[in-house]
Structures are given as C-alpha cells and as structure tokens.
Amino acid sequence: MTPEAKSQAVAAAVILLVVGLVIYFLPSLVLWIGQFSPTLAVVVGAVLLLGFFAIFWLRARYQRRRDR
Asked: Could you tell me the pTM of the whole model?
C-alpha cells in the first residue's frame, strides 16, 4: 500500500467515524431541539445529514484539483 493510499484510507476512516458518531446521536439531538422549535430541528437534522455528503464531495473536488 502506497503512502498516499494509506493517507486516503486513514482520512476516510476518520471522516466515517466522526459522521457515524453524529448520526448515532442525531435522533436525540433533533428531539431535544424539537422541544424548542420543530422547524429548527428539521433544519439541523437535514444539515447534519447533508454534511456527510458535502464532506466527500469537497474532498473529491480537492483531490481532482490536486491531481491536475
């Protein structure tokens, strides 16, 4: 395994671990926020879920730009 591939694997593992923890606690967080404002709870839930895809999209853009 090349050093670059190892670095990419570690970065992906860290991202997945952090996102996994966020998604694990997401229902509790949304229910807690929903006590104050249901609309805000929906927005926070959507932002956190879309953040997962945004991280990998931004990382892919960075990789493509770096490889040129």
From this structure: 0.69
Which helix (H) or strand (E) covers residue 37, if one does? none
Which residue is it, tokens 């670059």?
Answer: 4
Q: What angle do CA 9, 20, 1 make, to 5 degrees?
A: 10
Q: How far apart are CA 35 and CA 2, in angstroms?
A: 50
DSSP annotation of 35: T
Residue 41 structure tokens: 């709870």
How does pLDDT run along the chain (68 residues), one tens digit per residue?
A: 788 778 888 988 998 898 889 889 999 999 999 999 999 999 999 998 898 889 889 888 888 888 77
